[in-house]
Specification:
about 190 residues, mainly alpha, about 0% strand, 5 helices
Length: about 190
């Protein structure tokens, strides 16, 4: 801080490190109450100040880069989230169309069955045997590949399905003992 004399007169209060009075107080022969930094230290302080300003500028640049990266990631996240919402909406629409198509096909088959029953004059249509119903191939053509007509695989009547042969001790594999073929530890 400048001394009270320099401050009152509006002079620049400068002092050297070897003297405890400012140049103005020395010139006037007065007592100096300055707590200012000596002139010789100003150069070093200016260098320190410039160094700190440079570091401050670098940190500001780093902050700006990080904020730009955050903004980019937020945009990317927002785009991905919006894409997810669109995909979910498409999935719901596809599901509802698929369900509507299944209802339509069922109604169509019911009408065809009713027409056929009326034509034959029966209450129940005869079963032709273990062939796939007409609905299964149509559902598969619509992408429902996991639809299986088990009657075509195991027979029309579930009571005819034979699983008793697969019980322990009833292994249908010839030469096996409890499902293990001698010489083959992996089973029948």
């Amino acid at each position: 801080m400048p001394c009270s004399s320099c401050k009152a007169r509006g002079h620049s209060c400068r002092m050297i490190s070897s003297n405890s009075r400012c140049s103005e107080c020395v010139r006037r022969g007065r007592k100096c109450d300055a707590t200012s930094v000596p002139i010789t230290n100003l150069g070093r302080l200016n260098q320190e100040k410039k160094k700190l300003e440079l570091q401050e500028s670098e940190v500001e640049d780093d902050i700006l880069r990080v904020q730009q990266e955050i903004a980019r990631l937020q945009r990317e996240s927002s785009e991905k989230f919006n894409r997810l919402l669109r995909l979910r909406k498409q999935k719901r629409l596809l599901q509802s169309r698929s369900e509507a198509e299944a209802v339509r096909l069922d109604a169509e088959l019911s009408v065809e069955d009713a027409v056929e029953r009326d034509r034959l004059g029966v209450d129940e249509l005869p079963f032709d045997g273990p062939s796939e119903s007409g609905l299964v191939p149509e559902l598969r053509s619509l992408g429902h590949v996991d639809v299986v007509d088990w009657s075509s695989v195991l027979g029309a009547d579930p009571q005819d399905w034979v699983f008793a042969d697969l019980a322990p001790g009833n292994d249908p594999t010839p030469g096996s003992i409890d499902g293990v073929v001698p010489g083959n530890s992996g089973g029948g």
